């Protein structure tokens, strides 16, 4: 893997990706942040050596480098999921590349279902902790200790200082920002009523199919990490209706301006 990371990093450096400070992973329906970036360089995933390729139709496949709110950023426009058939090492490979390019902070967004029924669709949730229900670890491979501490500490995976800044910005901008626990499942099927009840019982406030692998690897690499979910649907097992994926994407897009405000204002303070 070290050889692959080196090849990918050198390719991107040759394309002008020069010492970004902050990495950003954009989730479902959250691509408009790209319009706020003064783009210096970009690379399609299918051109980057050793990179996976996005297979979900509403996930773009591009790594973008530029200036945002006075900082150099590298942005994943489209992410990878294990439900697409990738391994956890594939899913998290881009995080290792961004760290090699120079990032010290990783900001992540995603779309999630609200398990906590006090949270409503269209609102945002700051992730304070998570439950890894994906049945594996992106660190469970031979040679991982050559890339960082094998037994990565996860006592505080999300940076308290960044989370505090997010909360202050949300308050100042009058944006509803809940705080809670994100459960990451494999997917791609949505949950059953019994599964939603289980998730609530074990302490989840929201559920999705991404993010946690990237967070684990970012902690492995000693990056500062924060993540925000757009709550796209309400997961009430007693009143469960069939899910319309186009409606979920539309809800993510509706909440997107608030997410962009949060990210832009935060980056100014980093």
From TrEMBL:
Sequence intervals crossing the membrane: none
Q: Which UniProt keywords apply?
A: Glycosyltransferase, Transferase
According to UniProt, this protein's pathway is: Purine metabolism; purine nucleoside salvage
Q: Name one GO biological process term.
A: nucleoside metabolic process
Residues spanning the signal sequence: none
Q: What is its EC number?
A: 2.4.2.1
Q: What does this protein do?
A: The purine nucleoside phosphorylases catalyze the phosphorolytic breakdown of the N-glycosidic bond in the beta-(deoxy)ribonucleoside molecules, with the formation of the corresponding free purine bases and pentose-1-phosphate.
Q: Which PANTHER family match?
A: METHYLTHIOADENOSINE/PURINE NUCLEOSIDE PHOSPHORYLASE, PURINE NUCLEOSIDE PHOSPHORYLASE-RELATED
Tell me its family: Belongs to the PNP/MTAP phosphorylase family.
Name of the protein: Purine nucleoside phosphorylase
UniProt organism field: Winogradskyella sediminis
Per the UniProt record, the lineage of the source organism begins with: Bacteria, Pseudomonadati, Bacteroidota, Flavobacteriia, Flavobacteriales
């Amino acid at each position: 893997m070290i050889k692959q990371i080196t090849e990918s990093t050198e390719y991107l450096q040759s394309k002008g990706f020069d010492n970004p400070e902050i990495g950003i992973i954009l989730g479902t329906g959250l691509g408009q942040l790209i319009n706020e970036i003064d783009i210096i360089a970009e690379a399609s995933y299918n051109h980057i050596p050793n990179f996976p390729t996005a297979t979900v139709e509403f996930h773009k496949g591009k790594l973008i480098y530029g200036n945002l709110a006075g900082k150099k950023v590298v942005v994943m426009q489209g992410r990878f999921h294990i439900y697409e058939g990738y391994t956890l090492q594939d899913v998290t490979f881009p995080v290792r590349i961004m760290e090699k390019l120079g990032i010290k902070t990783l900001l992540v967004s995603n779309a999630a279902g609200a398990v906590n029924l006090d949270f409503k669709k269209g609102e945002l949730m700051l992730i304070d902790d998570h439950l890894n229900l994906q049945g594996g670890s992106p660190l469970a491979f031979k040679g991982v200790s050559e890339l960082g501490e094998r037994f990565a500490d996860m006592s505080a995976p999300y940076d308290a200082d960044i989370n505090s800044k997010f909360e202050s910005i949300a308050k100042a901008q009058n944006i509803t920002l809940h705080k809670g626990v994100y459960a990451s499942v494999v997917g791609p099927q949505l949950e059953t009523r019994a599964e939603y009840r289980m998730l609530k019982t074990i302490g989840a406030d929201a559920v999705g199919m991404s993010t946690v692998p990237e967070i684990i690897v970012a902690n492995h690499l000693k990056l500062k990490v924060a993540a925000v979910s757009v709550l796209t649907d309400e997961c009430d097992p007693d009143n469960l209706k069939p899910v319309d994926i186009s409606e979920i994407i539309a809800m993510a897009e509706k909440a997107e301006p608030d997410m962009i405000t949060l990210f832009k204002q935060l980056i100014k303070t980093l």
